[in-house]
Amino acid sequence: MSPRRLITDHRGTRYGEVLAAYVTEAGIQAHVYGTQMINDCPQELWERLDPEAIREELGAFLVKLNGPRYWVLDGLGAKVQTTEPVMKEFGGIMMRRIAELDLGTNPQQVPYTERHVNRGAVFFFDAGKPIYEVVNAEGAAFVMQAYCVGVDPTLTEESLIDLGGRLDLPPGWSYRTRILDEELVVDTSDHVATVLQDELENTYTLPY
Predict the structure, then answer these.
(1) Residue 71 in contact with residue 17, Cβ under 8 Å?
(2) Average pLDDT, integer, range 140-161
(3) Residue 175 neighbours by CB under 8 Å, 6+ apart
(4) Looking at residue 85, what is its pLDDT?
(5) pTM above 0.90?
(6) pLDDT tier, 51 (very low <50, low <70, confident <90, very high otherwise)
(7) 49 with 65: CB under 8 angstroms?
(8) Which helix (H) or strand (E) holds 51?
(9) What are the E-state strand segments in 126-202?
(10) pLDDT tops 60 at residue 82
(11) Per-residue pLDDT at 102
């Protein structure tokens, strides 16, 4: 059965995330809190967030502010919630814990490093819409799920067409933009997703 779309017209929606990293027996794990489906991450409140204060509040050893960000996908599918959602308010911004991110042994953001996130999500990219991809040296294409304005506040979806000229891609990698002939569904509802970021903290996901 094809996954069911619950949210549509989602391209361009703004959100922000707080990543709180903890040392576990399995390595460094981050709890991801996000404003998705709650609010649009108000800029005036986001600018006042204090990562060190949040780190102390959560008892984490590191906190990363991830965003603000804008989706470049068109719809979201169902995410099964088996337990009561964990809600947190940071500096007046309400967030929900939405995923767990495996950081391995290095919690720092390293461009083009694959990470694994348990998010239970389904992403829909509509036919006739543009997608933006980085392709690694082995030919695997990672599709952009969201662009970030935290590093470059002037970034827009329109500017993503020429983004490849700004990226310091690893040897053998490439960047491309294309228009979808048919709907692209990225279904990671039943397995861990593989993601990476570029040096501007735009986020890409493997579509399988």
Answers:
(1) no
(2) 97
(3) 132, 133, 134, 135, 163, 164, 167, 169
(4) 85
(5) yes
(6) very high
(7) yes
(8) helix 51-58
(9) 130-135, 141-148, 174-179, 184-187, 193-197
(10) no
(11) 87
- In the structure encoding, which two tokens stand for residue 132, read together? 């933006």
Per-residue pLDDT at 41 exceeds 70? yes
Q: Which residues are paired to 115 by β-bridges?
A: 195
The one-letter code for the residue type at 66 is N
Mean pLDDT of 101-105: 83
Residue 172, C-beta contacts closer than 8 angstroms, at least 6 positions apart: 136, 137
Sign of dihedral through CA atoms 93, 154, 132, 19?
Answer: negative
Find how far residue 113's CA is from the centre of its chain: 14
Q: Name residue 197's amino acid.
A: Q
Letter for the amino acid at 76?
L
C-alpha distance from residue 29 to each of 7, 52, 96, 175 (Å): 29, 18, 17, 29
Token pair, residue 175, equals 């960047």
Q: E strands along 13-155, which residues?
A: 14-24, 27-34, 62-71, 75-77, 87-90, 93-104, 115-118, 122-125, 130-135, 141-148
In this predicted structure, what is the pLDDT of residue 1? Answer: 65
